[in-house]
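Re: [help] complex structure
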Amino acid sequence: MSDERRPTPKLDDLEKGPWPSFVREMKRAAEGSAMADQLLGVLELSYGDRVGHWKHGGVVGVRGYGAGVIGRYSDVPEQFPEVAQFHTMRVNHPAGWFYKTDALRKVCDIWEKHGSGLTNLHGATGDIILLGMKTESLEPVFAELTENGFDLGGSGSVVRTPSCCVGPARCEWACFDTLALTYDLTQHYQDEIHRPSLPYKFKIKASGCPNDCVAAIARADLSIIGTWRDAIDVDQEAVGTYAADGLDVRATVCDRCPSKCMAWDGTSLDIDNSACVRCMHCINVMPKALRPGLERGACILIGGKAPIVSGAMLSSVLVPFMKLEPPYTELKELIGKILELWGDEGKNRERVGEFIQRVGLGSFLEAIGLEPMPEMVKHPRENPYVFYEEYFEEEK
Amino acid sequence: MPTIELNGHTYAVDEDGFLEDPMLWNEQVAADLATTEGIANMTEDQWKLVNYLRHYYLEFGIAPMVRKLCKENGFKLNQVYEMFPSGPAKGACKVAGLPKPTGCV
Ligand code: HEM
Ligand code: HEM
Ligand code: SF4
Ligand code: SF4
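Output below.
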C-alpha cells in the first residue's frame, strides 16, 4: 500500500528461481491490500526471529454455523494491526471444480472488498480457501457469498466438504458418476457439514476409477473408488496395433501387472480376471485397447488420513463392491451407521481409522453389521500363536 | 487483555469474548454475556443448557461432547443453534463461562 516497498530481504530469497513463488503472489496482492502487505511483514519478522507469530486456534464463525471459518490471531497485533485478526473462510466448491469464470470473478471481488485478497484454490479439503479476514467481515462476506449461490464448507469436527475427481465430465474411465454422488452427499449431509458433532473430522472423497485422481485412499476417512466386477473389456485387434507400433506388450504390460495375471503370446492377450486386482496399469498403458468392464460400481474403503495427531494411514477395504446409483441408499445407510458408532464411541480427536485400530476391525464390523471378508485383509496372518475365541467354543 | 462492558459490568475476556477467569461466573454474568449472542432474555431452555454446561464443567473440568449435550438435554443440534446462533461451543459455552474450546482446522 505504501509508496516505498516494505523491505523483505529474507522473503525476497523465495522469489529466486524459475518456479512459482507465494512471496511474488503476496507482493502482488500487497499492492492493493494493506492486509497482504502486513502479512509480508509478519512473515519476514518470523523468518528473522524463527518463531511463528500466529496464536493457535480461535473460535470464530458465522451465525447458525459452527464450521467453515478457521480463526487466527496474531501475537504481534500492535506492530501489524491489519492482520491482528487473520481468519480463513472455506467455501464449498462445486463437484469436480467446474466454474464459470464469472463465478470465480465474483468470489474474488467479494474477497478483495472484505478480505486480504489472497486465495488458495483449492485447499486439501477441496474447498475454495479465502485467506485472511477480520472478525467484523465474517457476516458481510457470508451474506454476499450466499447471495451469489455459494455456501461455506466444513472445518473442525464435521463431515468435511465431499470432493471428487472430474469423473464422467471429462474422463472415460469413470465407473460411476462422481459428480452426481458428491453433489448428492453434500446436500444430504448439510447439517453434519456445518454443525460440528463428531469426535474429529470425517472426509469423504470419490474417485471414478482406481487411478484415484483425488488420492481418496490417502486423504479421506471414507474413500469411494470406482471399480468393476466383470472382465476387462479387451479389443484384441487394438492390442495388436499397439504391438505393431512398437509397444513391448510383455515387458511393459504383462510383466508389470501386479498380480501377474496377464499373458501375451504375440497375437492375443489373455487376462485371468479372477486374479486381477483392478489396478488400471494395463488400461493406462493401452487405453485404446482395454477398458474397465461393464458391471461398474465402487469399492468403499475406510480409515485414510494424513499424519496430524498420529501417523499417516491409507484407507482399507470395507465393501469390495457397491453399485452407486441415486439415491445411494446403501451407501448412506453405511455412512450413517459409521457416524453413529464412531460419533458415540470415538475419543476426542480420534479419526475413524484410529478408532477402528483401537476397538479392532472385528468389533467395528460387528457394530455396523458387516460380515468380515477376505478383501478386508492384506494377507493371511503370520502369527499362529494367537488363539481366537471360536477355537475354544467346543470345549465349553 | 481486552475487556468488555455489558449492562454496566466490566469483564476481562479474550479476543473471542470468553471469560478470562471461568470462576468469576454467576447468573448475572451469564445474562450479560448472552447479550453478545443477541439474547436479551434467556428462555428456560437456554438456561437449561447453560446450567448443564456449567455443572458438567465444574464436575469434569472440560466441556461435554456436543452429541452428549444434545442427547442428555433432549435437544437436536439445529435447535441448539437456534438458541445460540454461534453454536454450542462459541455461544452456549461462552455464556456458561467455560474456557474457550480448543480451536482446530
Ligand atoms: C515459507 C513459507 C511457506 C511454506 C514453505 C509453505 C509450504 C506449504 C506446504 C508444503 C503446504 C502443503 C501443500 C499441499 O500439500 O497441498 C502448505 C499448505 C498451506 N499453506 Fe503454506 N507455506 C508457507 C507459507 C504460508 C503462508 C504465509 C500462508 C498463509 C498466509 C500459508 C497458507 C497455507 C495453507 C492455508 C495451506 C493449506 C493448503 C492446502 O491444504 O492445500 N502458507 N504450505
Ligand atoms: C503450529 C502451527 C500450525 C500447524 C501445526 C498447522 C497444521 C495444519 C494442518 C495439518 C493443516 C491441514 C489440515 C487438512 O488439510 O486437513 C492445516 C490447514 C490450515 N491451516 Fe494450519 N497449522 C498451523 C498454523 C496455521 C496458521 C498460523 C494459519 C494462518 C494464519 C493456519 C491456517 C490454516 C488454514 C487456513 C488451513 C486450511 C487450509 C485448507 O483448508 O486447505 N494454520 N494446518
Ligand atoms: S480417478 Fe479415474 S475416473 Fe476419475 S479422473 Fe482419474 S482416471 Fe478418470
Ligand atoms: S488392471 Fe492391473 S491387475 Fe488387472 S490385469 Fe490390468 S495390470 Fe493386471
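The mean pLDDT of chain A is 93.
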